[in-house]
Design a protein that fits this description.
single chain; 155 residues; mainly alpha; 0% strand; elongated
């Protein structure tokens, strides 16, 4: 049975972290645009990354729901999911969020997205991913260690 301590204790909800960071990017862009490419190139590349990110996110969410576990990292995990995109990465939903963020960065054509992404990735790694890994190892033990040994953390 899940208790109130049966959760990874992530530093912040990942979508909120990425979304808040992108709002900051838009504020910075307002004052100093810093374009990356010509507008048309950036827009199409951004759109491609957005489509890829949405596809991976949808696949990952469906896979977790089919396994009967929570998608929200603030809630208890009920199963180790090793199918779907979780065969290739232990964190495909976070990769999808990063692709969505990069797609928006290109669509809005600003280097600020890259600048702000660096601290976001550090917070994600230390405040979300590592905490989730400790939680999963404590909760699932050898089952999680075996999965971890076979599947890369990110790419």
């Amino acid at each position: 049975m899940a208790t109130s301590t049966d959760k990874p204790g992530v530093a912040a909800p990942p979508p909120l972290l990425y979304g808040g960071a992108f709002v900051l990017v838009l504020v910075f862009r307002w004052f100093w645009p810093m374009p990356i490419f010509g507008h048309a190139v950036a827009l199409w590349l951004g759109f491609a990354l957005l489509v890829l990110g949405v596809g991976i996110a949808a696949w990952g969410i469906r896979t977790m729901q089919a396994a009967g576990t929570n998608v929200n990292p603030a809630l208890p995990t009920t199963a180790i999911v090793a199918s779907g995109p979780f065969r290739f990465s232990r964190n495909p939903l976070y990769l999808a969020l990063t692709l969505l963020y990069l797609g928006l960065t290109l669509a809005f054509n600003t280097w600020w997205g890259i600048v702000v992404l660096v601290p976001v990735l550090i917070i994600m790694h230390r405040g979300v991913v590592l905490r989730e890994e400790r939680y999963l190892e404590q909760k699932f033990g050898e089952t999680y260690r075996q999965y971890r040994s076979k599947v890369r953390r990110y790419l």
